[in-house]
Amino acid sequence: MTGTDSKIEEYLDDLFDNAPVRELTERDRVVVFSDVHMGDGGSKDDFRENANLFLTALREYYFPNQFLLILNGDIEEYQKFLPFQVRRAWEPAFLLFDEFARNGRLVQIWGNHDELLSLRPGRKGREVQEAFRLRYYGKDIFIFHGHQISPAYTRLNRVFGYIVRYLARPLGIMNGSVAKNNKKKFKTEQKVYEYSTERKILSIIGHTHRPLFESLSKVDVLKFQIEELCRRYPRAEGKEKTQIAVEVQKAKEKLLALLESSPEEAMRGSIYESHFMVPSVFNSGSATGKGGITCLEVVDGNICLVHWVDEERGKHHLDSQDTIVVPLKDTPYFRVILKEESLDYIFARIELL
Q1: Cβ distance 74 to 111 under 8 Å?
Q2: Considering the entire predicted model, what is its pTM?
Q3: Disulfide-capable partner of 126 in 122, 165, 204, 289 (CB 3.0 to 4.6 Å)?
Q4: Could you give the C-alpha distances from 147 to 10, 36, 207, 212, in angstroms and in order?
């Protein structure tokens, strides 16, 4: 273990020990969003394209269904924009957050892009944390943004903010964040995986904008899916065998498309260092994706990776047998459950493996 790694682990241990704790049962409902990046509402605002989808999901689904809303960092984009610009552009979002807060159902965690929030006292119910813990029957779910893994962010984040806002943005230079760097994504996820697996906890992060379920990326999931289908194929007969062949081809096409669109990320493979699949890391993704927004839900003792889409962007989900698609009544949007698993099963694997 290097000196730097040791300091990061000490920092995370302190963060874990001092994080507020909320008890969780199978009756509770929780949704985790990260990396919303609300800006000034203009052409440089990464949130603008998905704003109506995000606000509608909160207002029409999560609030009436009594969800605890956890905003896991980089909700407000203060490295590119000033606070008054963000609040003026997205007043409806802040009013919604206030509604959750008044009902005792809001947790906000700051990230590297909205670290400014840590310097101001929040209103009652709108206090901002650096981390949060859910305790599920004695087992810990550790929620933090994820930038803490990099000592450079811890030391230099405010400097990065000034560079982005006053130099890079006026010159039209894109922000070189972790979300745009596949190597940095992988390193961040790998370090969180090592930390969480060693301490036998479940960690939920954001920061990389890449959804992870049970420590698996989309590439990992497709590879395991193809392997499982191929194992079933020799024993299948008739229509089942034909259907398996069709599903293998679809999964293969998706995997090849990923390899073509992002070869470095796809070829890097899993964040696992062993053959055991320890489901210790989950990532809620982001609300800035071209294909919609992603989040993590905890409902009825299960954890789910959810993709919110409109009909145009969700076409490939609507015909898929691998997902559960639920239309949101009186809206053009769909809630797509990509993956779902029991927390009891996940914690059993974390403990035993």
Answers
A1: yes
A2: 0.83
A3: 122
A4: 15, 15, 6, 16
In the DSSP assignment, the letter for residue 329 is T
- DSSP-assigned states of every residue in 200-239: T-EEEE-SS---BBTTB-HHHHHHHHHHHHHHHGGG--HH
Q: What torsion do the CA atoms of 72, 73, 77, 78 make, to the nearest 10 degrees?
A: 150
Token couple for 87: 């609040």
pLDDT digits (tens, 9 = 90+) for 12-46: 999 999 999 999 999 999 999 999 999 999 999 99
Alpha helices in the chain (DSSP H): 3-18, 51-57, 83-89, 91-102, 151-163, 182-199, 218-232, 238-261, 263-268, 315-318, 343-352
Superfamily of domain 3-217+271-352: Metallo-dependent phosphatases (3.60.21.10)
Do residues 78 and 164 touch, judged by C-beta distance below 8 A?
no
What are the start and end residues of each CATH 3.60.21.10 domain in the chain? 3-217+271-352
- What's the pLDDT at 135? 98
Has residue 172 got a pLDDT over 50?
Answer: no
Q: How would DSSP label each residue in 260-317?
A: HH-HHHHHH--S-SSSS----EEE---S-BTTBEEEEEEETTEEEEEEEEETTTTHHH
